[in-house]
Specification:
- The structure holds 2 protein chains of 2 kinds.
- By secondary structure, chain A is mostly beta strands.
- Chain A has no helices and 12 strands.
- In chain A, strand 5 and strand 6 form a beta hairpin.
- The radius of gyration of chain A is 14 Å and the shape is globular.
- Chain B is mostly beta strands.
- In chain B, 34% of the residues are buried.
- Classes of the chains: A mainly beta, B mainly beta.
- The interface between A and B is medium-sized, with 21 and 27 residues.
Chain lengths: 113, 116
């Protein structure tokens, strides 16, 4: 079946620290992969995506590379800011047969000044 | 910008009550979804709909039903609310056929339901 395993949080970092949130997936074929972010009091919004192997998604200084060989899509940022404090969700959409997304459990990030 | 609007931000109901959660989108999207979000469990799909009057069960449909009478509106119904249905409920929509440039869900800001 389809599933996403995401690094458990919470994660607390100081401002300007390096961030990695691990995400691995199980799916057949070549799913599309996503990172969504949920800021306090808001719904989820798309942060970045990759739709084929070796693609790199990037947005707002965040990056993630679609690694087929390790079935991973780890989220990274070189220098986090207080405004990055949020919950981050890794998700996949199967290559065929579904229009919905399968989400990981979410990782809460808190960045302190 | 696409807007997905959920009718209530917070809702408190009693056990056994019938509860309606409403969701409206303004982008003429065919697909609409209801998820529930619980700490440590992430988002789990309850139901989705790919057209008016069409619905499909998600991963956790028990205790819920849905209604899609108009394209823009997707309602989640708890026939007899129970305490284990206390949760954050998120509605989302998407166009019918995703492609690499248009592939994402648009989410509402959520309804925090407490069943006492």
């Amino acid at each position: 079946g389809n599933s996403v395993t995401q690094m458990e949080g919470p994660v607390t970092l100081s401002e300007e620290a390096f961030l990695t949130i691990n995400c691995t997936y199980t799916a057949t074929g070549y799913p599309s992969l996503f990172w969504y972010v949920q800021y306090p009091g808001e719904g989820l919004q798309l942060l970045l995506k990759a739709t084929k192997a070796d693609d790199k998604g990037s947005n707002k200084g965040f990056e993630a590379t679609y690694r087929k060989e390790t079935t991973s899509f780890h989220l990274e940022k070189g220098s986090v800011q207080v405004s990055d404090s949020a919950v981050y969700f890794c998700a996949l959409r199967p290559q065929t047969g579904a229009n919905n997304l399968f989400f990981g459990t979410g990782t809460r990030l808190t960045v302190i000044p | 910008d696409v807007k997905v609007t959920q009718s209530s931000r917070y809702l408190v109901k009693r056990t056994g009550e019938k509860v309606f959660l409403e969701c409206v989108q303004d982008m003429d999207h065919e697909n609409m979804f209801w998820y529930r979000q619980d700490p440590g469990l992430g988002l789990r799909l309850i139901y989705f709909s790919y057209d008016v009057k069409m619905k499909e069960k998600g991963d956790i449909p028990e205790g819920y039903s849905v209604s899609r009478e108009k394209k823009e509106r997707f309602s989640l119904i708890l026939e007899s609310a129970s305490t284990n249905q206390t949760s954050m409920y998120l509605c989302a929509s998407s166009p019918p056929s995703w492609d690499a440039t248009n592939e994402k869900l648009f989410f509402g800001s959520g309804t925090q339901l407490s069943v006492l």
